[in-house]
Amino acid sequence: EAQVTQNPRYLITVTGKKLTVTCSQNMNHEYMSWYRQDPGLGLRQIYYSMNVEVTDKGDVPEGYKVSRKEKRNFPLILESPSPNQTSLYFCASSWDRGYTGELFFGEGSRLTVL
Amino acid sequence: SQQGEEDPQALSIQEGENATMNCSYKTSINNLQWYRQNSGRGLVHLILIRSNEREKHSGRLRVTLDTSKKSSSLLITASRAADTASYFCAINTDKLIFGTGTRLQVFP
After folding, report:
1. What would the pLDDT profile of B29-60 be if each residue is shown by its tens digit?
2. Residue A80 contacts by C-beta under 8 Å, 6 or more apart in sequence?
3. Which among B43, B45, B100 has the least Cβ separation from residue A40?
4. Engineered SS bond to A74: which of A32, A53, A84, B97, CB 3.0-4.6 Å?
5. Which residues of chain A have a Cβ shorter than 8 Å from any chain B Cβ?
6. CB-based contact B100 A102, cutoff 8 Å
7. Residue B12: which domain range?
8. Tens-place pLDDT, residues B58-81
9. Nearest chain A CA: its distance from B91 CA (Å)
10. What is the total count of domains within chain B?
């Protein structure tokens, strides 16, 4: 089954404690992206990757890091989480950045930073 | 902002009625996409309409695009309680930009 898998789905952590949210896709997609969703603000792009070892900032990259060492994996790293990073996070993948086709989304990771 | 703006923000209807959601945007686009999100879940792609297309159908969904007015509409016909969800438009420029969504509630 084609899917994007995120882990963990739910996480409560404290300010400053480094965490990683993993994302894996099994569709051999070139393009992967991270979004955060906040009430009234819609989905905002954090980082994206066009291919292995190629990553770029989205609209709200501050406080986040990513890496793309393998095509299927695109982890999101919060080096020193702060309460304003409390949000619902989505990983998505696509053949071509949405130019001709859809984005496939993971089920989301709800992060709370105390 | 380049993002699509959905209207209305929330919509409540009875089963069997039609639901219409609108999306307006401000820039030139390659295509416009509609996604659905059940509460707290991931977004699911519904339909894509290219900038040179005016109307597209998929099952009970009908999407229109008016590039001169920079607007699109999503019509769900004969709605069901299971259609209860948030619906997002996403405009594709050099990247995909999502709007803030319309929350649809369909009462049995």
Report:
1. 999 999 999 998 999 999 999 999 999 999 99
2. A15, A16, A18, A63
3. B100
4. A32
5. 4, 35, 40-43, 45, 48, 58, 88, 90, 92, 97-108, 110
6. no
7. 5-107
8. 999 999 999 999 999 999 999 999
9. 9
10. 1
